[in-house]
Design goal:
Layout: H1 17-26, E1 28-31, H2 37-52, H3 55-64, H4 66-69, H5 80-86, H6 89-99, E2 103-113, E3 120-123, E4 138-144, E5 154-157, E6 183-185, E7 192-197, E8 202-205, E9 215-224, H7 236-246
Antiparallel strand pairs: 1-7, 2-9, 3-8, 4-7, 4-9, 5-6, 5-8
């Protein structure tokens, strides 16, 4: 099993040509300690609030049964520090190197993974109603607020798998098993971010033999402009509207919450 990985310098303001080429070739880039300590310190209690108050459960219910639950009263990006994280300027500059100057926010998830949470089978997260091409890039920014240590669930990725067109669940039958050529990331400092091409197969591999500690985890995804992306949340228009109302992204990223980059929502079959 390979344990080597690709790292960028801590908190890079820019990516150089080789780092961009590495991301395009391998499908991921690790940014250790990328987030400033003060931002991490403000996001973590919001994650606790999101989980413990039932707000996370409410948003899940609104996705699964929108006719009954409607639009959530509070979304992840409504939380002050979560909104700041979503539009963190150094992050957007790095994404601009991978996606080009025009890209849009797709969705955000926030959670506190319990130490005994089961792993998540191999999958990818590229949103396409019919998986048929990879002409445009979608990136997931995985933020590990407390980092990862060897006693916690780790992240395994399958380099170059984003170059092949596949259904999201094509490797689900492998569970969380070790795959040839994978890279297993099990140690990162607090405030680290892993950027994944959303079509890259990856898995959360649990370590039930260790008690571990909760894993504070926020992920946000962003899509390259130039095609219509299918939304995954039925209240996507309201979500983008709230981002615009908060002024997230400012004048430098005017299309970060533009509705014109999306097709209509279709409930999964």
């Amino acid at each position: 099993m390979s344990v080597q990985t690709i790292y960028a310098p801590p908190r890079p303001s820019e990516l150089d040509a080789e780092q961009i080429a590495q991301f395009e070739r391998s499908g991921y880039l690790v940014l250790p300690g990328f987030l400033p300590d003060d931002l991490v310190d403000r996001v973590k209690p919001e994650v606790d609030l999101w989980v413990d108050s039932g707000l996370r459960a409410q948003t899940i219910a609104s996705v699964l049964d929108p006719d009954t639950h409607g639009v959530p009263t509070l979304m992840e990006l409504d939380l002050p520090a979560h909104g700041e994280l979503l539009a963190h300027e150094p992050l957007l500059r790095v994404l601009g190197k991978l996606l080009g100057p025009r890209f849009v926010h797709h969705h955000m998830h926030s959670d506190r993974h319990a130490p005994d949470l089961p792993g998540k089978p191999w999958h990818h997260d590229y949103e396409q109603r019919v998986q048929s091409h990879r002409t445009h890039t979608m990136v997931h920014a995985l933020h590990y607020l407390d980092g990862i240590d060897p006693d916690m669930a780790g992240l395994a990725v399958l380099p170059t798998s984003h170059l092949e067109v596949a259904e999201k669940s094509d490797l689900a039958h492998m569970g969380c098993d070790v795959l040839p050529g994978e890279v297993f990331i099990e140690e990162l400092p607090p405030g680290s971010t892993v950027l994944l091409h959303s079509a890259l197969f990856h898995t959360r591999r649990a370590k039930p033999e260790y008690p571990g500690r909760p894993r504070y985890f926020v992920d946000a995804s962003y899509c390259q402009a130039g095609t219509l992306w299918p939304p995954v949340k039925p209240y996507w228009r309201e979500m983008l509207g709230r981002g615009r109302q908060r002024g997230l992204g400012g004048a430098h990223w005017p299309e970060l919450f533009a509705e014109s980059h999306f097709s209509d929502y279709a409930k999964p079959e």
